[in-house]
Amino acid sequence: MPTLRSRLGTATLVAVPLVVLVAFFLYPVSGMIGRGFWTDGSFDPGGVLDVLGRDRVHRVVWFTLWSAGLSTALAVVLGVPSAYVLHRLSFGGQRILRTLIVVPFVLPTVVVGVAFRQLIAPSGLLGGLNLDGTATAIIAALVFFNVSVVVRTVGSFWEGLDRRTEEAAAALGASPLRVFGTITLPALLPSIASAASVVFLFCSTSFGIVLTLGGLRYANVETEIYQLTTQDLDLQAAAALSVLQIAVITALLVISHRTRRNAPALTRAAERGRRPAVRDLPLLLWTAAVIALLVTPLTTLLVSSLRIDGAWSLANYRALQTTGAHNALLVTASSALAHSLEIAVQAAAFALVLGTVVAFLVSRRPRSRAVRRASGVFDGVFMLPLGVSAVTLGFGFLITLNKPPLDLRSSSLLIPIAQAMVALPLVVRTVAPVLSSIDPRQREAAASLGAGPLRVLLSVDLPYAWRALVAATGFAFAVSLGEFGATSFLSRDDNPTLPVVIFRLIGRPGAENFGMALAASVVLAAATGIVMLLVERFRVGSVGAF
Question: Which InterPro entries does the record match to this protein (predicted)?
Answer without folding.
Answer: MetI-like, MetI-like_sf
